[in-house]
Every structure is written in C-alpha cells, then in structure tokens.
C-alpha cells in the first residue's frame, strides 16, 4: 500500500540556503555550511490575528530625531568607524580572530562610556575576576561599569531589566544559550535565538549593544548568515599577530559610511587609537639604500604613507626564488614580468624579495608603480631620491593607470615632508599640487625609471 505524502517522516532543511534532505547530514549539500541542517516538521498554515496598536502611525516629519543622535564612545578611532558614535537602540557586531584585541577594545569603550551613564559588561568566556584584572591592567576601572559573568540568556535579560544600562557589551554572542532552544551554545539555532532576543530588547528599551562575534577558520562570522542582517553595524577586526597594528573596518553600517578605517596600537597596557599611523610604515628616512620606494595607500578614506622594500640577488638555483610579505605574490610576479619585458630590467634569473614596512598589508593596485621602482632600484643598485614617492597601477603593457583619491594621497605625503611624486598621466585632472610638492606625470614604467635616473639617483649606500 502506498504511503501518503502527509504520513511521511519530516525531512531536514538548511537554515542558510533552504536545501532539503530526507536524512540529517552534518554539511549542507548546496552551500557547504556545517551545522546548518535542521529537522523540519509537517507544514502548517499559520495566520496572525489582529493586534492592538499601542503607538499609532504618524507623519514621518513629526517623528523626533533626538532619540537617534549618536553619542561618543570616548575612543575617537572607534567613533570614526561607527560614523560618529553609538546610536541608542543600535546593535553593533564586532568580529575578529581570537586574541586580536576585541575584548580589550570593548572593555576600554565600556569604561569610558561608564563615566556618564550605566554600562553592563556581560562575559560568557571569562569570570568577573578575570575581566576585572584586565580592566585594572589597561586602566578601565569605572564606578558606572557593572560586570556579569553569565551564559544563560534568561539571566542576562534579567540583568538588563535590573540595571537598565545605556550600553551593553556581550562577550560573546556565541557563548550564550537559551533554555527554550535545544542544542549547545554557539549552534545556529542558539545564536539566532540569543541575537533575536538581545536585538528585540535593544530596540524596545533604546539600549545600545556591542556584541562580540567569533569567526570561523575561513574568516567568516560564526553562526547563521542572518545574524549580519539583523544587526545594525558589522565591524571587522584585522591585524597581524606579529605586529602591534590593528585595523577596524565597518563592513555594514546603517548610520554611517562603510569605507572608514580605525587604526589602533595594541600594547601591554591596552589598545590605543592612532590618529597618525603613517609613521609606523616608514623606515628611518635618514638612511638611503637601494630598493626602497614610498607610496600612499587608501584604507577606506584614510591615506596611509607606506614604504616598499625590494632585494634582488643572483640566484644559485635553476628556479629563482620569489618571496613577498604584505603584498599579493601573484601581482608582484606580474610586475616583475612587466619590468623584464617592457623596461629591460634583468630580473628573470635573480632571486627577488619584496616586503612592506611595519607589517601592513597592501591590496590595492595603486602601489604597483612603487613596487616596480623598488625592484628596479634594487636591480641597478642605485637608491631613489630621498623624498620621492610613486603611485599608480601598472598594466601588462607597461602603462601606468590612474588611481582614485590622488589629491588626498598627495596632501598626506606633503604633510610628512615628501617633495616629489610620480603619478599617472592626468591623475590630477587639472587640480593643483600640494604646496611644496612637485608632481611629475609619467605614462609608463620605462618613463618612470628614466625620470628617477634623471633626478640624480645615487649609488651611495647609507649605513644602517
């Protein structure tokens, strides 16, 4: 006898992409996400009854905007990323790798905010004594800052009702669990329930919330993808463990731009904002050696002057070594091929090492010309002029293409004392160069190399 469709056992469905299966699997067969396949029951038709309107709709022009005014966190670099500060009722998700400095930064923000309003810091990973010890180490002790070490969602909501804080820091959202939902803390259902309850409380009470989020091995935020859609702001922490520099980027921001970057210095005494981080990416400017060239990159809308170093040595093996640190290795290889083919630089049979100064990672193509000049300087063993920088994208035919934000880049370079800049032809677009800086337009790599040779590049090597 055939089994009717209604009597079949319930199937399983991926909560991320909707892929269905007749049996449970640990990994979705469509989006390949782990732990997102859940059992679904028989389909039911649900209808919502008419409710009572407590706050009637009114013209949009009559809605007051005072309740949505952002207030400063006391950390200027964090305010820059958020778009001016924290908006009451907003939910900010701060994600990053373990040990990158998320908890240290948010504890500092909580202590500064507690100077004028009550703040609750909820730690699901550390005890209250451990958080207090870190707060004492970084100087983040404040009378208005309350600590709670909890992992139960219901208890955390009770703390919120008892203290009525203006700002809540939850470290982290993956460590909280609800007794109403099956499964361990951190799975998809628990993260969805915890985030939904916290966001609902934030919107209803006008409480600003900072949620710490874990990341997976691939670098994405752990939990359901809808978590990033529910929150108002998503902030990503970046940085090399071997470097003190930390970059904070806004991936999503409903209250400000998403192209701002905050720079921080992580030390033993805490994490501090860097108003002028360009000095971290420059070596000693009184030393003149071959193979160095400065450029200006844009991190969001902030220009950063960085230095690129190159070393070219005769190879002792049939296949020359190619190593790069802080740069895209495939792009460096492409620039070397352009130098060999279009500019006649003999780099094909030599070991080449290219690196950035200060541990910064450059991803935009505007640094191509600086990489090319640094390698050419190392090949000729002749140092470039001391106060010269270069910017522009290099094409496969050797042409130098324009970069965005040239005026902002040159203004920052002139502030740091650079007097000469090699830029692509037409980069200024009729604008004036910064005071005290000579801007030279070049059309291709060969013309850029001829220009630095004409300006008296020297073969004298300074003593390090």
From TrEMBL:
KW Nucleotide-binding (keyword) present: yes
CDD domains tied to this protein: RadA_SMS_N (cd01121)
Function: Plays a role in repairing double-strand DNA breaks, probably involving stabilizing or processing branched DNA or blocked replication forks. DNA-dependent ATPase involved in processing of recombination intermediates, plays a role in repairing DNA breaks. Stimulates the branch migration of RecA-mediated strand transfer reactions, allowing the 3' invading strand to extend heteroduplex DNA faster. Binds ssDNA in the presence of ADP but not other nucleotides, has ATPase activity that is stimulated by ssDNA and various branched DNA structures, but inhibited by SSB. Does not have RecA's homology-searching function.
Name of this chain's protein: DNA repair protein RadA
NCBIfam families (alphabetical): sms
Keywords: ATP-binding, DNA damage, DNA repair, DNA-binding, Hydrolase, Metal-binding, Nucleotide-binding, Stress response, Zinc, Zinc-finger
GO molecular function: ATP binding; ATP-dependent DNA damage sensor activity; damaged DNA binding; hydrolase activity; zinc ion binding
Organism: Marihabitans asiaticum
Domain spans labelled RecA family profile: 67-215
Residue sites binding ATP per the record: 96-103
Record carries keyword Ion transport: no
Motif RadA KNRFG motif mapped to chain: 252-256
GO biological process: recombinational repair
Family per record: Belongs to the RecA family. RadA subfamily.
Region (Lon-protease-like): 351-464
SUPFAM superfamilies, per database record: P-loop containing nucleoside triphosphate hydrolases (SSF52540), Ribosomal protein S5 domain 2-like (SSF54211)
GO cellular component, one term: cytosol
Domain comment (free text): The middle region has homology to RecA with ATPase motifs including the RadA KNRFG motif, while the C-terminus is homologous to Lon protease.
């Amino acid at each position: 006898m055939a089994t009717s469709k209604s009597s079949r056992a319930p199937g399983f469905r991926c909560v991320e992409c909707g892929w269905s299966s007749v049996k449970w699997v640990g990994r979705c067969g469509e989006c390949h996400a782990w732990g997102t396949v859940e059992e679904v029951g028989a389909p039911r038709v649900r209808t919502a009854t008419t409710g009572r309107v407590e706050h009637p709709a009114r013209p949009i022009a009559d809605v007051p905007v005072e309740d949505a005014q952002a207030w400063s966190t006391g950390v200027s670099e964090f305010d820059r990323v958020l778009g001016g500060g924290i908006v009451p009722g907003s939910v900010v998700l701060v994600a990053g790798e373990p040990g990158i400095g998320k908890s240290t930064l948010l504890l500092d923000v909580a202590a500064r905010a507690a100077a004028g309003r009550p703040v609750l810091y909820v730690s699901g990973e550390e005890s209250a004594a451990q958080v207090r010890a870190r707060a004492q180490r970084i100087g983040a002790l404040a009378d208005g800052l309350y600590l709670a070490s909890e992992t139960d969602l219901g208890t955390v909501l009770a703390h919120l009702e008892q203290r009525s804080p203006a700002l809540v820091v939850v470290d982290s959202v993956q460590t909280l669990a609800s007794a109403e939902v099956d499964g361990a803390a951190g799975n998809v259902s628990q993260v969805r329930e915890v985030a939904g309850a916290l966001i609902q409380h934030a919107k209803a009470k006008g409480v600003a919330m900072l949620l710490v989020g874990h990341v997976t091995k691939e670098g994405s935020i752990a939990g359901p993808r809808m978590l990033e859609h529910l929150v108002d702001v998503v902030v990503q922490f970046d940085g090399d463990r071997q470097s003190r520099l930390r970059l904070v980027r806004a991936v999503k921001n409903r209250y400000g731009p998403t192209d701002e970057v905050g720079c921080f210095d992580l030390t033993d005494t805490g994490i501090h904002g860097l108003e002028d981080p360009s000095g971290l990416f420059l070596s000693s400017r009184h030393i003149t050696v071959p193979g160095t060239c400065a450029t200006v990159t844009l991190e969001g809308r902030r220009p950063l002057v960085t230095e690129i170093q190159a070393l070219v040595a005769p190879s002792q093996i049939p296949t020359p070594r190619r190593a790069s640190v802080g740069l895209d290795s495939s792009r460096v290889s492409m620039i070397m091929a352009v130098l060999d083919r279009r500019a006649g630089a003999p780099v094909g049979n030599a070991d080449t090492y290219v690196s950035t100064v200060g541990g910064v990672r450059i991803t935009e193509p505007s640094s191509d010309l600086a990489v090319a000049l640094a390698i050419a300087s190392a090949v000729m063993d002749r140092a470039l002029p001391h106060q010269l920088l270069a910017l522009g994208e290099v094409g496969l035919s050797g042409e130098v293409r324009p970069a965005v934000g040239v005026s902002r880049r040159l203004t920052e370079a002139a502030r740091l004392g650079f007097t000469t800049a090699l830029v692509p032809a037409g980069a200024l677009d009729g604008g004036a160069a910064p005071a005290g800086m000579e801007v030279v337009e070049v059309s291709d790599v060969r013309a850029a190399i001829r220009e630095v040779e004409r300006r008296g590049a020297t073969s004298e090597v300074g003593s390090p």
